[in-house]
Amino acid sequence: MIQISLQGxxxxxxxxxGDLGRGMALCLAQAGASVLVNDNAFPRAQQTCDLIVxxxxxxxxxxxxxxxxxxxxxxxxxxxxxxxxxxxxxNNAGGIRDSRIETMSEEDWDEVHNLNLKAAxxxxxxxxxxxxxxxxxxxxxxxxxxxxxxxxxxxxxAAKAGLVGLTRSLGLxxxxxxxxxxxxxxGLIETPKAAxxxxxxxxxLIRMTPMRCMGKISDIxxxxxxxxxxxxxxxxxxxxxxxxxxxxF
Length: 249
Ligand SMILES: NC(=O)c1ccc[n+]([C@@H]2O[C@H](COP(=O)([O-])OP(=O)(O)OC[C@H]3O[C@@H](n4cnc5c(N)ncnc54)[C@H](O)[C@@H]3O)[C@@H](O)[C@H]2O)c1
Description:
Elements: E1 10-13, H1 19-30, E2 34-38, H2 42-54, E3 59-62, H3 69-83, E4 88-91, H4 106-131, E5 138-142, H5 154-173, E6 180-186, H6 192-195, H7 199-207, H8 217-228, E7 239-242
Parallel strand pairs: 1-2, 1-4, 2-3, 4-5, 5-6, 6-7
Nicotinamide-adenine-dinucleotide (NAD) binds at residues 14-15, 17-21, 38-41, 44, 65-67, 92-95, 115, 142, 144, 186, 189, 191, 193-194.
C-alpha cells in the first residue's frame, strides 16, 4: 500500500483559518507534518490549530498579515524557532473584491493584488533561505480557475494569472535547489461561501462544470498534499486544475 508521509517536515499554510486553508493544514498534519497555521483573523487560526492538536498533530497559530513584508519575515522566523525548520510553504491566503471595470476602485485592484499575488512573493522570498536547508523544499500556490478570465473579476483573474507566472518563474530559479514550485487552481468548491450563493448562480456554475457537481475541500487539500509530498519530487512549475473538468468560465 502506498502511503504519503510528511513525517518530520514542517509546513506553513497562509490563510489557514479559512475554508480551504483549514482543510489543507489538517490534511498536511494528518500526513505527519508539523504546521504553522497563519491567519490574520487569529481566532480562526487558533481554531485550526486546536483541530490539528485534538487529532494528535502538532501546530502553532500565527496572526501575521501576509501582505506586510516585516510581518512575513517574523512569521517565517516563528515557524523555524518553534517548529525547528521549514520544508513546505502553501500560499493560500486570498480573496475577492468583484465588480465590473467601470466601478472597480483602485483600492479594489490594489487589495486583491496585494493579497493574492504580492503576499505569495513576500512569503516565498522569506521562506526560500529556509527551504534551501530542506532536502524536500516545496512551494504550493493556490490560484483559481478564474486565472483564465472571469466577468467581474479583472483584478482577481489578473492577480491569479500573475501567481501562475510567479510559479513558472520561481520554479526555474529554484530548480537547482530541488525546490519545487507548483500551483493548484480550484474550480467551484462546496464551502459555506458557495452555499450562500443565490441558487440560480450556483446552478449556472454547476452547469459549467463538466462533472456537474461542486468539488470538496478535501479535493483541494489532496492536490496540495500531492505537490507537498515525495510523490511530486520531480514535478515543478505545474498548474493543476481541480475543477471537475472545467477549463474556464
Ligand atoms: N473557495 C473556493 O471555492 C475557491 C475557488 C478558487 C480559488 N480559491 C482560492 O483558495 C484560497 C482560499 O480560499 P477560501 O475560500 O478558503 O477563502 P477564505 O476567505 O475562507 O479564507 C481566506 C483566509 O485568509 C485570511 N486572510 C485574509 N487576508 C489575510 C492576510 N492579509 N494575512 C493573513 N491571512 C489573511 C482570512 O482571514 C481567511 O481566513 C484563496 O486563495 C482563494 O482565492 C477558493
